[in-house]
Amino acid sequence: MRFGANYTPSQGWFHHWLDFDLDAVRTDLDAIAALGLDHVRVFPLWPVFQPNRALIRPRAVEQLVALVDAAGERGLDVNVDGLQGHLSSFDFLPTWTQTWHRRNIFTDPDVVSAQEDYLRTLAAALADRPNFLGMTIGNEIAQFAAGPPHPDPDRITPEQAGSWLERVLAACEEGAPGLPHLHAEYDTSWYQDDQPFTPAHAARLGAMTAVHSWVFNGTAQRHGRGGPATTGHAAYLVELSKAWALDARRPVWLQEVGAPQPLIPAGHAAAFTEATVEAVLDCPDLWGVTWWCSHDVSRDLVDFPELEYSLGLLTNEGEVKPAGKSVAAFAERWRGREHAPAPRTTALVVDAGDDGLAPHRSVCAPGGPVFDAFARLAADGARPTTVLASLADDADHLAARGITEVVTVDNVA
Hints:
The protein is an alpha/beta fold. It has helices at residues 22-34, 46-49, 58-73, 109-126, 158-175, 188-191, 199-204, 219-223, 228-231, 233-241, 269-280, 322-334, 369-379, 395-401, and strands spanning 2-6, 39-42, 77-81, 86-87, 90-91, 132-139, 182-184, 209-213, 252-257, 286-291, 346-350, 384-388, 405-407.
């Protein structure tokens, strides 16, 4: 069982790559390691590392390697997100994909080839580091592919999204063979009918499934800061992902989860953290929990959405916050312990239409019939999981997952 943090540098936020200070990074990593965490997820800025389609800056790659080495010296493993992409409401795309050079980042052959070179280069530079966990393609890169909410999307079909993912994942494998490379999408892949990055992509491509749980998506608004559906949202996403997985034991990584104000007030952050993590730890095949984020964003930086300034486990000055103490306590409790919850034997049927395209996946969103039925089952102590309608009568599939009871939305009072 792994506990970690998404590393947000205390000095300069992700702009620290422009003025890279390894001593400042070491100070941040010391504070993260002092919480008892075992890994970080880090974020190179794509336009900083590859400012021209034919230029991957050697000095930037060296700085990334230095960061990974510094983390290793502190007992921290590192997952590296490559295509940044999108972070905390800001987009970071190279100029060679924008305005006068506007090209679709998923389908233009020159852009995709350059992405492959970039991801392969980062992976190869880290392949021999024992604390390198592998690559994540990018942070919630699906948000570029559909609008709304994105104001200027690079529109693609689900088939094009799948083809792109296969290519960029293969590039990571070429750079660092045998490591668990993956991609990470946010909840529109599970909840938005026309999002071209589908649940099947998330649950079938890459070494494991990543889920990002944010309760400002309507969950906390509907169910309150401490409602079981709110504190159980991360567990719901983990179990929802298993409906589309072809491997009955596919690992699921809760790669982002946080306590956003004001929906989760500061005084309630510790309670929310404890309840959320307790709920998700009852999910079989959970790889780990990685909190968003390590450090608060400095108030010296402007134009962030207000909630972004207060999501850290640590203040910008490195002081441990209540949520940080809660995550540290979980890390201490689980250090060296095997994570093996009992199988979830009750499965709720999910019918989102075609299994690959999921054209009606909004049934799974907050307020949808699948979401609400799952919440009611969980509140009744049923420990539910999910199963696709097409597999609900497949005895071999159910047995492989330990499912002994199948219920439909209409069966749940």
